Amino acid sequence: MAAETSTDMEQIESEVDYPKKAIKCVLSQSKTSNSDDQPHLVFTHGAGGTLQSEGIANFAEGFASSALSILCFQGNMNLQSRVKMFKAVIDHQGKDTITAVGGRSMGARAAIMASESFVTHLVLISYPLHTDTQVRDAILKNIPDSVKVLFIVGDHDKMCDITRLDEVRSQMKCQTWRVIVEGADHGMAVKPKTATRPIGIKTGHVAADWLRSNPSEELEHGCISWNDAAEEAQWTGWQ
Predict the structure, then answer these.
(1) Among 63, 58, 83, 62, residue whose Cα is nearest residue 73
(2) Helix/strand/coil (H, E, C) string of 103-119?
(3) Phi/psi at 51 (nearest 5 deg)?
C-alpha cells in the first residue's frame, strides 16, 4: 500500500514473516524511485516508539527526500528480540544488498548487534550511551575498523553526554562522525515545538548526504540548529 506524504516522496508498507507476528515495515523513498530497488538504509525506532513517532518519521522523511530510500521496521521493547527482528528483515531483503543499518536509541544498539560483515555503515541516532548506573560503550568499541559510523545526538540528551561520547569515539577502532543537534533532547524534540519536524527532517538530509558522499576523515563534526529569524533548520556542514 502506498501513501503520499507532504514532500516529494512516498511510503510503501509491507510485512516480513516472523514467528507469532509479522514485522511491519515502511519503505520511504522518492516518488521517482523504483520500489523494486533495495533500500539504502534499514532502520528501526527506540524502545517505546513506533514508526509514527516524531523522531523516526521526521528522520525518514528527510532521508527519503534526499533521493535515498530507507526501510523502517516496527519492533518491540526487548533488545534481544529486536536484534532477531533486525536480522529477519535483513535476510528478507538479502544480505548481499544491505550495507547500511541504523536506529535510534535502543534501535541503535540493536543495529550494532545485528550487524555482520556485509555492513559498512552504521547510522546511530540518540545512542543511549549511559544511564545513572551503566555505560553502554563495549559494543561501540567492538565495531570493526572496516565500518564507518555516524552519531547524531542532541546536546540536551540526558542519555548521551557529548563529552562522554567523544571520549568513547576516541577509543573506537573505526572511523566515526558526530552531528550535534542544538537544543534537542533524547527524542529529538526541540523548542519551539514547531521546529521539531524541520530539525528532524534535516537530520535525515545530513545522514543521507553522509552515506552518499563519505566525507573526509579530517572533517568529522557538524551541527544542526534552528534559526528563529529564518524559521528554518540549518546545517554547518562538516568541520
Answers:
(1) 83
(2) EECHHHHHHHHHCCCCC
(3) -70, -15
